[in-house]
């Protein structure tokens, strides 16, 4: 049986030694049990990644960081540089001083480990790795003038984080063949590659503005606000042009809860009540399941006027879930799903993701499978002390098993960012 020696000191070269017996052990040769013990006390991704980066042997003997999500919160008040990250694994909030996220910078999304940052003062957009501090500049936002939006509204929104609805990366932006796709506030699609100076915008007519997109089997799949799916094959880029090939479109799901007049029918879990919902109160998310299927999550919201009719409070009523079946007798069609099995979806401003929940509830502090975790997907706006009446922090957990919405354990306290006449409300964002 091998006896462990007491380690009393570590010299500058990384050699561990015992003064009495003069036994020298280089830190790269520490046994796996000791490394596991040390790693078990590292709570944050920053500490864990630094630990694995000490040497090759430590990196090979310790597993990668868990894919369980963290929830990015923002500091309130905005005068400090603190960012808050909630860890479901520990049921606690970690606060870090990240200068790249301070001041008038807003987080507008998250994809492939990188945050999408917008600077209100310079109007510049960039990608930020919150763990390494690495930053990659993106092209300036283009001037888009949809016919149904006034020039004044466009100019106001272009100076705000509302101009960016979502950003999706095909892979890490450190890769030379990474494609960065942006969905603008008006639903237009654009894309660029790392190092590009301008966005290339999609100038085509499709079934309504786009709401979400995902890279699925080497193609970009986007869903419109009317629930129609379009696949794109982004061609090679040269100095003069870049091609977007619309390879195939899929109509929105046919379901008993979807009427022919572009309404959704909301029903209570016991089937006792029905309520028609306009498409304005419906949001579509598209995500790849852990099993490789393409899923469509349809978020249905209540439409309740507040007292006095002074505002609209849109909160989630339920989710409908569909899987794209490529082999039906009538071609590609959506099939209604009643559950996710061992998976859970995480939806919001982040890239839509599906994760397998393998541990029990006790070890994950209530992180449950067969559920949809969602956060608000829009930025709220405050002018002085006046709250934007069309914005509410819609955040919670939808159980597909009992068809109910519950609050998540994090407080719904708003996080205000910015200064001057307007203060922007930045929603929490899931990171993984």
UniProtKB/TrEMBL annotation:
KIB1-4 beta-propeller domain span: 85-398
Protein name (Swiss-Prot/TrEMBL): F-box protein
PANTHER family recorded: OS07G0183000 PROTEIN-RELATED
